[in-house]
Amino acid sequence: MIVRDLNVTFSNYGLRPRTFLCDYVVFGLEVIGDTTEFLDHSLEEAEDLEVREKFQIKVKLDLSQAIFLAGFIKSTSKTLDIDGTRYEVVNDFRDAELGLFKNTTLAVHPLLRFKAKAIGIKNPAIYTGAMFIDSTARVS
């Protein structure tokens, strides 16, 4: 599910929380569990599959905001507050490109990816009607 023009609060222990208006936030799910692929390319999924929430965030930042976010990404305990729901997250990328470019102002426009620390769905209302995962389904 994608939500445009959404306020996201970035906070961690040691830095003052900051809220940025993001171009968009993509809510996704990562399926965790064993899946067996057969010779006919059909899949059999384990019945005890779990899911982990993933977030893709696109945000335009000025220089001071980019410096804050670089510190946020490097920190070990961080949280995102998205639309009133608080998520403890970890990085889902090796590096984020925060290269500066000159337009009318000095700014960056990174795509950030995070995973929820906890397995499961924190706010099921986000996914209602947008996505359904049936752990007993077989794909052929």
Question: What this model shows, in words?
Answer:
With 140 residues, the chain is mostly beta strands. The chain is 9% helix and 49% strand. The protein has one helix at 63-74, and strands spanning 2-12, 15-32, 35-37, 43-45, 50-58, 61-62, 78-82, 85-91, 101-102, 106-108, 111-116. It is elongated. Residues 131-140 have low confidence and may be disordered.
Descriptive terms for the model:
140 residues, mainly beta, Elongation Factor Tu (Ef-tu), domain 3, 6-stranded antiparallel beta barrel, 3-stranded antiparallel beta sheet, 1 helix, 11 strands
Order of helices and strands: EEEEEEHEEEEE
Number of strands: 11
Structural class: mainly beta
Portion of residues within helices: under 10%
Residue stretches low in confidence (pLDDT < 50, at least 5 long) are 131-140
Q: How many helices?
A: 1
CATH topology: Elongation Factor Tu (Ef-tu), domain 3
Instruction: Determine the mean pLDDT.
Output: 81
Residue share in β-strands? over 45%
Tell me the Rg in angstroms: 18 Å
Major sheet: order of its strands?
1-2-5-11-8-7
The N- and C-terminal alpha carbons lie at a distance of 25 Å
Shape: elongated
The CATH architecture assignment turns out to be Beta Barrel
Largest sheet: 6 strands, antiparallel, barrel
